[in-house]
Design goal:
The complex is a heterodimer of chains A (401) and B (256). Chain A is α/β, with parallel strands linked by helices. Helix content of chain A is 28%, strand content 32%. Chain B has twelve helices and no strands. Classes of the chains: A alpha/beta (401), B mainly alpha (256). Chains A and B meet through helix 1 and helix 3 of A and helix 1, helix 5, helix 11 and helix 12 of B.
Chain lengths: 401, 256
């Protein structure tokens, strides 16, 4: 086992509360006399992190969750309020935009300074300069002051410097979002090669596509705490599902008016579990939906079952009057049915199973009950479901010999 | 990270910063103090009829020059480096670097410019036949060493306080002239009423103003106790400045 490249234990960061200028003076006095300032707002709490050489970690979370703060703590730009972080190796960091470029100086001068900050001397730099300029590919702008650059150019130059330095640990914060399509591709390709060559990466991104493509592990930060950490697919799926639920909850507040309905749902169980918490299913496993419905007048209802993405996009739905047997009587005024979906074709992600009782004619809809379903798995396919497919060989006569 | 190489880079950048865009370039560094010396000499010699007491007293121009030039190095170094951390906020927020380097480079560049000017003017005045002893030039340059330590100590303190209290540099702009006029830069200690002469030793620059005249003009004499006090003060200020800077350094990013 090689020792961890980054080891953080109980990492905590709090910013001082500074509202008026007198607060600054008071903070200065406290820091000088006592060496600490208790008046603080906490932004990161109890973060444990361990990254080994050759690993790649995606850092995801909402705005303000503490991702950038965590990166700054790792790179040593910020000092933790409590806890510790150790890094055994050279860090190349691209934090937000700019990478510390001075706006008045030309790109070339800034490259020289950035290289010096990473401990690269004159001779080595002269060797690497053409490589950096070629990678950045910003033409004559290299000799213009950085203040005239577009944000994309700044990122290009910043990335080019880091790429030339080949650090042990590369830390990037949302840099891919600014570059244009071709530069993004170049960066992603470079990062893949870098990872293949044994490099270590911490990537902050809101693009789950990039995170899944480049990282094998992920860490989800929520309001300054680690919500989930582990395999990239599980974490990103949980994160996306959480987002979908959040936007769905915002979209439709459902009034509860069950009492006195002609037909109402008594229970819905997914693979035998009834609780409100989400049911976990491995992609490709079977799913059984068991529904019990109360019928006020004892008439036989129709039961409709549907699966939607957590944000409401319909995936598939059907009802007992389409191709199934009518619900069976299981009590005085209770009916039940069970739907089985073998080898579930849903791709990994968060879904909702919706159940509605309908009148016997299948026209009027009563009541709605939803259950969360999480499909787990490591798949990079796109969309909602896996369609049956196979790849054909290209006909021989069209191949170039 | 090799801090020395980094300091050198920032030092070069600082020097270029000052002369880039200015029409006369590096010449300005020499020209500006020369002009200042000319104005002061004219005002004091021809308007106020200033005379240096003593039978073998040197001319007023060399008398003033010997203290004014070192003072400009000291005051400019402290004043300019006070904002060294604040001005590099963008860099500090993005890259981990030893931040003392920024202050050190700023102080060093002020000293380099003014020391070069000092040597040049001493040579010029000596060539013009003033009462300057060129043999004392080496000793004079040596005097810059404790003065550098003193300046760096003050600069580290002021730069770290400036991060928290932004008026520091304004206050400093008021305090420095006071320090200059309360040190024997424009006049000699012997012109003061008897009861105030001792108070002058409280001004950290008094020792340097008088010592430069001793080594260059053979005017006055060294007092061993004063020398020792000055050296101890320089060391203490440097250590105190470094302690203060290091104590506040982890919190800079929070307040920038």
């Amino acid at each position: 086992m090689n020792p961890p490249l980054v080891l953080a234990r109980g990492l905590e960061k709090a910013y001082p509360k500074v509202y008026r200028s007198s607060d600054r003076l008071r903070a200065l006095g406290r820091l000088l006399v006592r060496g600490e300032d208790p008046d603080r707002v906490s932004v990161l709490r109890g973060v444990d992190l361990e990254i080994r050489r050759g690993e790649s970690l995606g850092l995801i979370g909402d705005n303000g969750a503490g991702k950038s703060t965590l990166l700054k703590l790792i790179t040593g730009v910020l000092t933790p309020t409590a806890g510790s972080v150790e890094v055994h190796g050279e860090i190349g960091a691209l934090l937000e935009l700019g990478a510390g470029f001075h706006p008045e100086y030309s790109g070339r001068d800034n490259v020289v300074m950035a290289a010096a900050l990473h401990g690269l001397g004159g001779a080595e730099l002269r060797e690497k300069m053409p490589e950096i300029i070629a990678f950045a590919d910003i033409g004559h702008y290299i000799d213009e002051p950085v203040k005239h650059y577009s944000s994309g150019m700044v990122v290009r130059l910043g990335f080019a410097v880091v790429a030339a330095l080949k650090p042990d640990l590369l830390v990037t914060d949302e840099v891919l979002a600014v570059g244009d399509e071709s530069f993004q591709k170049k960066c992603v390709k470079w990062m893949k090669d870098y990872l293949d060559a044994g490099g270590t990466l911490i990537l902050v991104s809101h693009s789950m596509y990039h995170v899944q493509k480049l990282c094998r592990h992920a860490c989800w930060l929520r309001a300054g705490e680690v919500r989930m950490q582990g395999d990239v697919f599980e974490v990103t799926q949980a994160y996306l599902a959480w987002h979908e639920r959040k936007s769905a909850a915002l979209a439709e507040p459902r009034p509860e008016q069950r009492a006195g309905l002609e037909f109402s749902v008594i229970s819905v169980s997914l693979n035998g579990s009834q609780g409100e918490q989400a049911t976990l299913v491995e992609a490709g496993d079977d799913l059984r939906v068991h529904v019990r419905v109360r019928s006020r007048d004892g008439r036989v209802p129709c039961i409709a079952i549907g699966i939607t993405r957590a944000d409401g996009t319909a995936v598939y739905g059907l009802s007992t009057d389409m191709d199934g047997p009518p619900p069976q009587r299981v009590g005085e005024a209770e009916f039940a049915c069970e739907l089985e979906l073998p080898e579930l074709a849903l791709l990994p992600g968060g879904y909702t199973v919706r159940v509605h009782p309908l009148d016997p004619e299948g026209v009027r809809l009563f009541d709605t009950v939803e259950r969360s379903l999480i499909v787990r798995g490591a798949s990079r396919e796109f969309g909602l479901v896996r369609l049956a497919h196979h790849w054909n060989r290209v006909a021989d006569e069209t191949l170039v010999p | 990270m090799p801090a020395a190489a980094l300091t050198l880079r920032f030092f070069q950048r600082e020097l270029r910063n000052r002369f880039q865009g200015s029409f006369s370039g590096g010449l300005w560094a020499l020209f500006q103090p020369l002009l200042q010396l000319a104005v002061y000499s004219f005002v004091f010699v021809h308007i106020f009829k200033a005379r240096i007491p003593g039978a073998d007293a040197p001319g007023y121009v060399v008398f003033l020059m010997a203290a004014l030039w070192p003072w400009m190095a000291l005051s400019e170094a402290v004043l300019r480096s006070t904002t060294a951390i604040e001005e590099n906020a963008a860099l500090i927020g993005k890259v981990a670097l030893p931040r003392e380097v920024l202050v050190l480079a700023s102080v060093a560049s002020s000293f380099a410019i003014h020391l070069a000017g000092f040597i040049a003017i001493v040579l010029i005045l000596a060539a013009l036949g003033s009462a300057i002893q060129l043999s004392g030039l080496g000793m004079a340059i040596l005097l810059y060493v404790p003065m550098f330590a003193l300046a760096l100590g003050f600069a580290l303190m002021c730069a770290s306080i400036q991060v928290f209290v932004r008026d520091t540099v304004q206050v400093l702009g008021q305090v420095l002239p006071l320090l200059m006029f309360s040190a024997p830069v424009f006049y000699d200690r012997s012109l003061l009423p008897e009861q105030f002469r001792g108070l002058m030793d409280l001004n950290p620059f008094t020792f340097y103003a008088e010592s430069f005249r001793v080594v260059l003009l053979d005017y006055g004499s060294f007092r061993p106790l004063q020398c020792l006090a000055a050296l101890v003060l320089a060391a203490v200020v440097l250590l105190l400045g470094r302690w203060m800077f290091r104590r506040l350094d982890p919190h800079f990013e929070d307040f920038l």
